[in-house]
Amino acid sequence: MKEYDFYIIPTPIGNLGDISKRAIDTLKSVDIIACEDMRVTQKLLNHFDIKTKCISYHKFNEKERVAYFLDLLQSGKTMALVSDAGTPLFCDPGAILVKELRKHNVKITALAGANAVATFLSQISRDNEDFVFTGFLPKTKTQIGNLLSKYKSTDIVFYDSPNRILNTLDVIKEFRPDAKVAVGRELTKVFEEIVINDVKNVIEYFKNNILKGEIVGLVFRDKNSQQNIDIEEKINILKNKNFKAKEISVILSELYGLNKNDIYKKVLES
After folding, report:
1. What is the rounded average pLDDT of the residues 81-101?
2. How many C-beta neighbours within 10 Å does residue 227 have?
3. Predicted confidence (pLDDT) per residue in 23-58, tens digit
């Protein structure tokens, strides 16, 4: 266990049976566990009879903890990072710490495990593999509208709360009235549910059903949007401005939410 100093360990997103044996063994072996909410993590540790000491590490103390954790690791201690559920750094604390540890050449390894996005998408048939993950959507209607417009040609995956999802769906309906969406809740739990339909129908469904648990949502790409963008014309304009193929693919993918690799191929073919 001394080959690595620092471990990033996913924890179950609902069903405790989803934790791996390697994760349990690692949590038992390290000297310290940095956790988002000690009460939540302690329930997990108690369930698997893990006695390792926990130290809080959350968005309000991320920066001040970094030096302390670095000192522990440099003194020879081993350490694991967990969040309340799922994989750290996915809308959870950890990015600041990992960035600093890499600056000091601390060895890091990430264990495979639960992730709400992967669990959600594995149950949904999509036309293309590419998608954009936005984390939690912006708070204002205008910001959400801009995001929906930018990524019309790409599936948009996002996190949301049960208190906010109906409002989010209303905003999606306002900007993309014909959008098809998927909403997943209580993933891996007894009452897991994924609803896939036109946005107006999903709104009506959840108006009549109690919403609990964390939410993962998907706005399917607008199949007609790419037809409304003359990609060939825009490629030619940029080529005439002496932009290279890679630059063109990045620019057009950012502007129109298109697949960068598809654009790159079109540039080479044109």
Report:
1. 93
2. 9
3. 999 999 999 999 999 999 999 999 999 999 999 999
Q: Residues 93, 58: contact at Cβ < 8 Å?
A: yes
Element at 136 (helix H, strand E): strand 131-136
CA distance 185 to 82: 22
Class of the CATH domain delimited by 117-219: alpha beta
**Tokens 């990430």 — which residue?**
110
Is the pTM value of this prediction over 0.90? no
CB 205 within 8 A of CB 197: yes
13 φ/ψ sector (left φ>0, alpha ψ -120 to 50, else beta): alpha
Q: Which residues partner with 160 through β-bridges?
A: 215
Place of tokens 């080529």: 239
Do 120 and 183 contact (CB within 8 A), yes or no? no
- Looking at the domain that runs over 6-114, which CATH code has it been given? 3.40.1010.10
Residue 167 identity? N
> Helices 165-175 and 199-207: crossing angle, nearest 10°?
150
Whose CA is closest to 137, among 126, 147, 152, 122? 147
Closest C-alpha among 243, 245, 239 to residue 260: 245
How far is the CA of 158 from the CAs of 165, 171, 189, 257, 265, in angstroms?
11, 14, 19, 16, 28
Distance (Å, whole) CA 224 – CA 218:
18
